[in-house]
Amino acid sequence: MRLSPLAVIAAIVFCTGFLAAPPLLAQEQEQESTEPLEEELPEVTIFKRADDTVTEFRLRGKLYMIKVTPENGPEYYLIDREGKGQWVRDDSARKLAVPTWVLTTW
Known about the structure:
Helix content is 26%, strand content 29%. By secondary structure, it is an alpha+beta fold. A five-stranded antiparallel beta sheet has the order 1-2-3-4-5, with no helix packed on it. The radius of gyration is 25 Å and the shape is rod-shaped.
């Protein structure tokens, strides 16, 4: 069965429309939510403990990361990876994208 050139052109235009639609929808959704909500901003608390400066990072009231800056020595991070209160030292935390939010669920 041979298709006419007009049918081939119509099919190409139809498929191109479907391929272009998802990026356009994503751009519209991204433009709507460019400003973070007040609840999504982390709360940062800084205080001195002995010779160390401790910075606590909380999201929605839950402590998820602690940065410790000793007076003499390099800074280090304590991270609760699973949210169970088990703190692990992580010197590469500056490279992490913390916190990780659940954007949508179905």
